[in-house]
Amino acid sequence: MMDVLTAIEGRQSIRAFDASRAVADDLIRQILTVAARAPSGSNIQPWQVWVVKGDLKERISHACEARFLGGDEGQGKYHYYPQNWRQPYLGRRRETGFGLYGLLGIDRKDNEAVTAYRVRNYRFFDAPVGLFFTIDRDMELGSWLDYGMFLQSIMLSARGLGLETCPQAAFCPYYDSIMPLLGAPEEQMLVCGMALGYAVADAPVNGYRTSRLEAVEFTHFLAPDH
After folding, report:
1. What integer is the mean pLDDT of 67-81?
2. How many domains does the chain have?
C-alpha cells in the first residue's frame, strides 16, 4: 500500500492507459467505498457515480467523438474555467498546454495533429473504465466543494491500489448526449468524467508533470513563529 504523501505527490493526469488490463468491479467498489469518507457538510454526500465499461463506454465515446470532430463544441451546464482569462492564470494554462504538446512533438498550430490528440479525451485515453459523476441541480456551492474532495479521494484511493486516473471536464459540453446514455434522471447534472485503469508505465506522455507553486508563494502566515 502507498502512503498518503506519496499518493498525493505522485498523482497526475494519466493520458495513456493499458486497455488490455481489466479493472474488476470489486476493486472499483473498494475505491469508491474508501472515497466516500471524504468530508461532506452535514453529511449530505451529494455524489452519484456512474461506472461505464465495454459497449456502453464505446457508445459514449463515439457520441462525443462524433460531435467534437463535427465541429460541435457543445455547451456545459456550468463554467469550469473563467469567462475572462487574466494573469497569472492565463500564463499557467499556456505553460501546461505548451509543455504537454511540446513533449508529444505536436505543433499547436497543426490543427490536424491537435485535433487527433484532443479526441483521445473521449476515448478515456484507452482506460478500460470510465466514471461519470452527477449532482442534483438544486445543490449549492458547498456541495460542489464537497464533491471536489470526493473526487480527490477517488484518485488517491485508486493510486493506493495500484491504479491511476485522469479527471476529465472535456465530457461536460456533451452532457446532453451522455446523460441519456447513463439513464441519469433529469434532476441531476453532469459534474465531470474520469478515466480509471492501469497506466502504461513507459508512455512518454505519462512522464509529463505540471509545475506547482511553492507554498511560500500562496501561503500567508499572519503570526509566524520566530
Report:
1. 95
2. 1
At 186 the pLDDT is 96
The H or E element containing residue 176 is helix 175-182
Give the number of other CB atoms < 10 A from CB of residue 158. 28
Residue 27 has which C-alpha cell? 476493486
Range of the domain at 31: 4-79+121-208
- Compute the radius of gyration of the chain from its Cα atoms: 18
Q: What is the pLDDT of residue 226?
A: 66
103/207 Cα distance (integer angstroms): 9
Per the prediction, the chain carries an average pLDDT of: 96
By C-alpha distance, which of 191, 82, 177, 212 is closest to 141? 191
* pLDDT above 90 for 47: yes
The CA distance from 102 to 217, in Å, is 27
At 110, give phi and psi (nearest 5°). -85, 90
Where residue 220 falls (left for φ over 0; alpha for ψ -120 to 50; beta otherwise) is: beta
Question: Per the confidence metrics, is the pTM higher than 0.90?
Answer: yes
Count of CB atoms situated within 10 Å of the CB of 98: 11
222 vs 58: CA distance, rounded Å: 52
Note the pLDDT tens digit of each residue in 195-214: 999 999 999 999 999 999 99
